[in-house]
């Protein structure tokens, strides 16, 4: 993920300060608070002599502006708080809580970032820096470098199961194993849990779940492939890639069989769900149940935080944060017997366990591995969790495992804005057109699993645009059908740009065909005839209020090659022998669909259901 430097962030910092926020801050510090002068040209004025008060400044975070209130009093940072943010739930909110507290505690803006949310951390520090400077204090007095305390402890412990990586698969497996009574230790290298989980859309297949059965009064839904396991398997059979016709789809069968019980379990322990897309006119991709509250970059984040907290409520389970597993250890017979790990605080852990789960995610952030296994993608940017560095896969290989390399070298791409806001659902939130650099309509751009189908090449140019009208701008800001407001940040980030007319957009963006494409689109919208992509329900693009354009690019976000496992998550050797005590799930084990001879579809579903399944298998094998 692109790191925004402090200098860049400072360039974004406050010009105008929202009146309501300023008033709140003032009220919170009655009598003593002073605000930066926002009169006249709306720009805060730097005071010449230190002036105590409450300063509300802002800096651009991962999603949008983070507003921070900093109280300066008697030469000290008396208080600091994030007063408004739209950061990713389950990622940026950790920085919003922890960084201001650390700044006050240490009286320094130079505190360590929360690992896993550096962009939000840096933004908060930049906003506080600006507040200090506006107040007329010397920033040097608040810049002492604070490093993490080093303890250097040597810790030896024994448990039933050690889980390497607390992301989607790891958290679900650990939460389930804790309930089975296992002594579980999750080792997570970042300061926060979740890996890729909070970044995910998170609709899960729910075939066979009690919730679905309760919903399906007439039995109609259970008679569709989405709601019926056998029909789903039959449908998948039709999607097998050439050369895989004899696949028994055994991995997908596990995924779809465990999805229902997993959905019921999550529901039983308190994860909220919302039912989506089951009414007329709703989008077909959203069939089924979805984590709630919220949707993309919201619902799953809440679920993730809930699971992480739940694990630690069990006396027999814990998560070691900021601790990196460095190697697997073997016993005197040469069998896997645990892990070694190093804490950010210098602690050295030796954790012996009866089972080791490899759930360290994929390797999209490991340039060497990408170059080796996906040469066509060497050097490309992956918009994924920074922790996807592949070392856990390497540990599996060192233990005798083998990588399933699917050999097609192809990776799923989805859409991002120029500023790397994920736009996989823009086709649904923002009725309009995707046009290439010439302004030519590109069709729907995304397939059923939201993978982008646009290639940047000579014909399309090196970027393309999502174009929509003012009504669609409102549904982009807040899409009531999907309960979704994530893309509101496009407007706050000024990545959605308004042009007074199509002609102005065409000229400024060099899209000569734009007007003709909009006219053609509108003709199809009125006639209902299929357009050249076969689409019959086109949105009418009303241009009297001008037009909105967002620059878009296809972006890669994960790797699909992974460690070879059997259907019960045991790690396998080249000769398909089980490596005792060693299990893997999620991106570490690669795409479940590809193992079955299909195209990649649902990383989240495979990581979660196989995490769940792995826990059930281990509980059985360890007689828990
Ligand atoms: C932006 C984005 C959008 C996505 N959207 C979708 C979607 O809409 N639908 C869908 O089905 N899938 C989606 N996916 C894919 C899906 O999120 C992943 O396939 C899935 O979450 C992977 O889960 P995992 O448990 O394998 O890995 P992760 O969730 O990445 O977890 C791995 C964990 O291991 C930790 N770790 C790594 N190495 C070590 C080590 N040495 N020691 C300790 N800990 C370690 C990491 O810090 C991390 O927390 C998306 C992914 C991304 C990045």
TrEMBL record:
SUPFAM superfamilies: FAD/NAD(P)-binding domain, Succinate dehydrogenase/fumarate reductase flavoprotein, catalytic domain. It catalyses: dihydrourocanate + A = urocanate + AH2. One of its GO terms (cellular component) is membrane. One of its GO terms (molecular function) is steroid dehydrogenase activity, acting on the CH-CH group of donors. It comes from Adlercreutzia mucosicola. Its EC number is 1.3.99.33. Keywords: FAD, Flavoprotein, Oxidoreductase. This is Urocanate reductase.
